[in-house]
TrEMBL record:
Its EC number is 2.5.1.54. This is 3-deoxy-7-phosphoheptulonate synthase. Residues 87-328 form the DAHP synthetase I/KDSA domain. GO terms for molecular function: 3-deoxy-7-phosphoheptulonate synthase activity; aldehyde-lyase activity. InterPro entries: Aldolase_TIM, Class-I_DAHP_synthase, DAHP1/KDSA, DAHP_snth_FXD, DAHP_syn_2. PANTHER family: PHOSPHO-2-DEHYDRO-3-DEOXYHEPTONATE ALDOLASE (PTHR43018). Residues 1-66 form the DAHP synthase ferredoxin-like domain. Keywords: Transferase.
Length: 345
């Protein structure tokens, strides 16, 4: 069961409902989004039936949601949501480009990549300070030093920062630097981490686990929402299949399926799915065509020297074509480039 609070509901109104649910023997989880607050009720529905929840002050609606992912479900929130990251919209009316280096290496490399990304139309900067790698001998990231570099580059370019957090103990530290926290595919079912990012008060990008079904992906998002955060963006980044011709298999069908089941924005990572520079632009076009709310793309000034994923990073002519795609393709599917929306605002 889900209680939707009205826009004029006060903190006292919310607390009153939490207390009455507790008295009835249930648990109430409060989740706050940009435009409204939702209270998810856990317990035997029958025990809540005698309560006049609709009559309580501040309550706009009470709904019984049968989907296991109650707070992120379209049953709970029929209209699709827009998440704002440092003022940049990610949602149904826009296509947002998030771009930058897969890994932060040096201040100069990160600044050059950010400027390349911005010239291509990016409105958010991605960059990894912590890098969970398959091999323990591969570059693991600069840690807090990388976060400081990202913060400095944000000051120089004006691009809000999206960066990955890999450990629940680091959530507070990463959130002190980042505008959006990313949970990567390897941590998509790290439930302690999901709960930690859910309680920190920053937007979260949740990548689909490489072996996860769409329902498991949405249930992972529910862990974040249940801890009070509805500002979640889902990212389809390719799944593991029998195919070896690409790094991962981009499941383009996951975009409309997830958008039908959930009100959360859905973006695509064409870099980590294809794994090759020549595949990034075709997969970007496919992502926009299928209705994705954005893409996250690797950019590097010297990919042959990159410490992480150089073969998939875009450069030069690729970025000029990316700029054209981001300008021309969104209107074909009834959307606007997020940069145009910010400029007009």
């Amino acid at each position: 069961m889900v209680i939707v609070m009205g826009p004029d509901a006060t903190q006292g109104d919310v607390q009153a409902i939490v207390e009455i649910i507790g008295t009835a023997g249930g648990d109430a989880f409060v989740s706050r989004g940009v435009s409204r607050t939702i209270i998810g009720l856990v317990g035997d529905v029958a025990q809540f039936s005698a309560l006049d929840l609709r009559g309580m002050r501040g309550v706009a609606d009470v709904m019984r949601v049968t989907a296991p992912y109650k707070l992120v479900s379209r049953d709970n929130h029929p209209e699709r949501s827009t998440v704002r990251v440092g003022g940049v919209p990610i949602g149904p009316g826009t296509v947002t480009l998030i771009a930058g280096p897969c890994a932060v290496e040096t201040p100069q490399q990160t600044l050059e990549a950010a400027e390349m990304a911005k010239a291509a139309g990016a409105t958010l900067l991605r960059g990894g300070a912590y890098k969970p790698r398959t091999s323990p001998y591969a570059f693991q990231g600069l840690g807090e030093a990388g976060l400081r570099i990202l913060a400095d580059v944000r000051e120089q370019t004006g691009l809000p920062v999206v960066t990955e957090v890999v450990d629940a103990h680091d959530v507070e530290l990463v959130a002190s630097y980042a505008d959006m926290l990313q949970v990567g595919t390897r941590n998509a079912q790290n439930f302690a981490l999901l709960q930690a990012v859910g309680g920190i008060g920053k937007p979260v990008m949740l990548k689909r686990g490489m072996n996860a079904t769409i329902e498991e992906w949405l249930m992972a998002a529910e862990y974040i929402a249940q801890r009070g955060n509805l500002d979640i963006v889902l990212c389809e980044r390719g799944i593991r299949t029998f195919e070896t011709a690409t790094r991962n298999t981009l499941d383009v069908s996951a975009v409309p399926v997830a958008q039908r089941l959930s009100h959360l924005p859905v973006i695509v990572d064409p870099s980590h799915s294809g794994g090759r520079r020549d595949l990034v632009l075709p997969l970007t076009r496919a992502a926009i065509a299928v209705g994705a709310d954005g893409v996250i793309i690797d950019v590097h000034p010297n990919p042959e020297q990159a410490l992480c994923d150089g073969p998939q990073a875009l450069v030069d002519d690729d970025l000029r074509e990316l700029a054209r795609v981001m300008r021309d393709f969104p209107p074909l599917v009834g959307k606007n480039p997020a940069g145009d929306v910010l400029a007009s605002a």
